Amino acid sequence: MSRRAPHSVLAALALVAGLLGGAPPAAAATTTVTFLPSQDTYVSSSSPNTNFNDTNSLMVGASPTRISYLQFTVTRLFDPVTSARLRLHVQNTANAPSPAGGTAREVGTDWSERTLTYATRPPSIGGPLGSLGTVRSNTWYELDVTRAVTGNGFVAFSLSSDNPNGAFYDSREVPNLSPQLIVQTGPPATGNNVLLNGGDISACSTTGAAQTAQIVAREPGTVMAGGDLTDSGTADQLANCYGPTWGQFKDRTKPILGNHDYLTANAKPTFDYFGPVLPPGKGYYSFDQAGWHIVVLNTNCSEVGGCQAGSAQERWLRADLAAHPTRCTLAHYHHPLFSSGGRQSSNVRPLFQALYEAGAEIVINGHNHQYERFAPQDPSGVADPARGIREFVVGTGGRSLQSSFPEPAANSEVKNGRTFGVLKLTLSPASYTWQFLPVAGATFTDSGTGTCH
User: Fold this and answer.
1) What is the spatial distance between Cα 28 and Cα 90, in angstroms, rounded to a whole number?
2) Within a 10 A sphere around the Cβ of 207, how many other Cβ atoms?
3) How many angstroms separate the CA atoms of 68 and 143, rounded?
4) Tell me: the pLDDT tens digits for 82-132?
5) Do the bridges between strand 328-332 and strand 57-60 make them parallel or antiparallel, or are there none, so unpaired?
6) What is the DSSP string of 183-204?
7) pLDDT (tens digit, 9 = 90+) per residue, 246-296?
8) Residues 6+ apart with CB under 8 A from 357
9) List of residues 6+ apart from 67 with CB closer than 8 A
10) Under 8 Å between Cβ of 370 and 415
11) Predicted structure pTM score
12) How many C-beta atoms surround the C-beta of residue 25 within 10 A?
């Protein structure tokens, strides 16, 4: 069996689907489709010739080696795939949790759940897609498998772990808790509707910025350089450390100012380096892109007359938002209001408040050398799925990472302090997708979708 279904098979599936459910839907700007497995099972090295399809479990672990396999039939996609997530539910039993939930890989599709054994398991295709850390019982978890899902056809995954304390997931035989493949489609990512976000970039003594620059080099889009561009904002550091890395993309960069940029008086070298894009002495501005209004703020508050209600910047922000009543709004500034990393800043709350009142969707920050994603919330940190702002902290551009999260914050959904990378946002007229792109050799990623208010 080939990895991708032949055209005749897909045509037949589409015909049957049309007869059962009406004509295929017209292509939409953004569509999310959930697929259940057509096959799933696990194998064990302790019984290399035994088939375990008569259980309702998917097991992973070492001693013995247990590997789970899942296969999906992807059909009726009419637009390019923008993201794909493998969703798994840990069983509600005492031995189901694990400190290592497993690593997903794409595998061949020429197998049957009724006959698969450890001795006949399919080969992997490419490197790891993503990994799960600690998993708890009776809880859903997701892995980003976008790289493996390119369109209609068959696709299969393995889930394995080298930890003896293995994890147990529900299989497709368990109603309502079956694994899922959640596929989102939409317009292809182009330079016009993509933002590439990363802060805390260039430390002259590390290679992180050179690694993340490799991601930016291959991705079209506007580069949002999220502050702390160099160690201390000198002209020499901009020329010799930032310049050879993210400076390659200066002609498509929208800079944000961080506290390190002001270690040289008034951040003058940074203003000079970027020229007119950074309004002199202010560093806050806005622009429109892909139907979105995008605001860049300067949260080095003492340098711009404060960030409090009634300050020059806060008044400018409210006037700017009133003059651009678009459906979708995003703000980018350096210091986060919310963080589990212990370096959040209450000084920016009035700015967050103005954005919240205007119905903004997203705020992107840096400052903490980590990645963190929050559920939509209000300026007080109360979950607000209807009107709340989703905050991302993306201080993973190249400076030394901070692995610990000493102050767990409410509404935090995903945290990682060990991976350099870039947050890719793909903007649509009424929605957005996000994907954390890790540097070469790293496996952590995060992806999802949201809609505008």
Assistant:
1) 33
2) 12
3) 14
4) 889 999 999 999 999 999 999 999 999 999 999 999 999 999 998 899 888
5) unpaired
6) EEE-SPP-TTSEEEEE-S---T
7) 999 999 999 999 999 999 999 999 999 999 999 999 999 999 999 999 999
8) none
9) 42, 43, 60, 118, 121, 158, 159, 160
10) yes
11) 0.65
12) 10
Report angle CA 337, 338, 342 to the nearest 5 degrees. Answer: 105
Rounded Cα distance, 301 and 340, in Å: 22
Q: Please state, in angstroms and rounded to a whole number, the distance separating the CA atoms of residues 350 and 344.
A: 14
Q: What share of the chain is helix, strand, coil (3-state, %, to 5)?
A: 20, 30, 50
Map tokens 């990682």 to a residue.
Answer: 416
**Would you call 399 helix, strand, or coil by DSSP?**
coil
44: β partners = 66
- Amino acid at residue number 321: L
Residue with tokens 């961080």: 258
The upper half-sphere exposure of residue 79, i.e. CA atoms within 13 Å in the direction of its Cβ, equals 18
319 Cβ contact partners less than 8 Å away, ≥ 6 residues apart: none
Task: Give DSSP secondary structure letters for 400-411.
Answer: PP-----SPPTT
